Amino acid sequence: MPTDNLPTPGSLVLVDGKGESETEIRLSPIPSNDVNDPLRWSWKRKQLAHLCLVIYTLCTGSSCTLVYSILIPIEKDTGIPLSTLNAGTGYLFLLLGWGGLFSQPMALMFGKRGVYLVSMVGGIACLAWNAYVSSKGEWIVNKIIQGFFISPIEMLVETSIGDIFYAHERGFYIGVYAFVLFGSNYFAPLVAGFMYEAHGYRFVFFMGIMIQFVGLVFCFLFMEETNFVRNITELSEAHDDDVSSPAKNAQNRSSMDEKEAHAEAVELKGTPLRFMEKMKFFNKKYAKTSQLITLVYRPIWLLRFPVIFWSGFQYGAFLIWYNVLNATASLILSSPPYNFKASMVGLTYAGPLVGVSLAAFYSGWFGNKFLLWKAKKSGGVREPEHRLWLLLLCVVFVPSSLILWGVGAARQIHWIGLVVGGSLLACSSAVGGAIAINYALDSYKDLSGEVMLSIILVRNSLSFGIGYAITPWLHLGLQNTFVSAAFVGLAITITFIPMLFFGKRFRHFSRKSYWKYVESSTLSH
Fold this sequence. Notes:
Elements: E1 12-13, H1 43-63, H2 71-78, H3 82-98, H4 100-110, H5 112-130, H6 136-149, H7 152-164, H8 167-199, H9 201-222, H10 232-237, H11 246-265, H12 275-278, H13 292-301, H14 306-333, H15 342-347, H16 350-377, E2 381-382, H17 392-410, H18 415-443, H19 448-474, H20 478-493, H21 496-509, H22 511-519
Antiparallel strand pairs: 1-2
């Protein structure tokens, strides 16, 4: 590909400049003529594949967050101090990120289906062990191993969504993913509180094992492989280099019309996979051992792209506030003047669950509609930065929710005020996380696997740090801690404003390295 005519990553003609209907949306990427191309799957088959991803996320996500509402009871029953329990969460998130340096290359080389199934088996084993942990060191080691096994939940699901759905569809399905991921994290503590009071803390982990086992059986029977080798020419043609030129746009649209018409009318080639072929754990046709080291170091190297680093940092910041809420919920609500039992602490997670539901609608369905509207206003051109306007909601919600939760607890306001604060914080965390993911994937879709791993490395490294920092930070007092957190959260969130103006320039400067990476990639994800 000539280096002087490389398209800017992420900028593409998505709709006709005057288009008013869904039929005028441009397909990106253009599907191949292979009958096994996931983009060619029927609507029902795509929805089943997405359901498998949802079930994996729900079962795996809930299994590692069951303890949030019963941290104080676990401290009393096992003698493991709260600081160690919170530190264990930090190690869990650290390995959720860095474990991807192993799981992500394996998934891209040998297939995602096998990695998902092994992940669930390992998660079940860690939960069984978790029920009998009795020392500080053992708790930390357990969380490290658990994080390693379930690391695909943090980056592989988004990559699989990109395998199945077109650019204009991904926002909605990643919004659903964010809802399930964050929702499971709030639903699990809600149920765990009641389970603890009825049967003790060990039964909480046994409940997690049962949930994961059901998910494992379902995914084993119905989850399909979504890896597909896509031609580099097909990928680059979906992008537009000179999107500022109306004449160039018209020419591109005419060319795209012909290609899309051909994509719809073409006779499909190949033989559909049989059931037993779909049941394989791994597929050797993706195995290119010579590129394994590249797949390991490239996600770290991609952090030099400002868009990717900023997305990871932004996502990490939103996750920090989510971790702060979980680390302090049991501590605040189990203490005077609230004196909630574990079941009541768990029940307060119903509020954040509602907040996450609203976030899924806002960042998913509404976000897609907003993006299409912005593209039409921009002559049909979709820029990834268009999605960043949705972060205006977080500019208001992040600081206000942190103050309502922390300062409200310090002033001993009614517990309903705390639930509202937690709900707003959960909503903003889910919105911010979904938008950060979508922005990075919209910008560098053709390296989605490596991009997601890069983002999670930054995000979870920040989460690891807060796992250690939260307990000393709370020594400042609830009011001082959360006032400072509110200002830090506001300062980080508004960094999206410079990205609105400079994001495209950053993407343009990275185009040579990006397309070089795509051309040498193991497969197009």
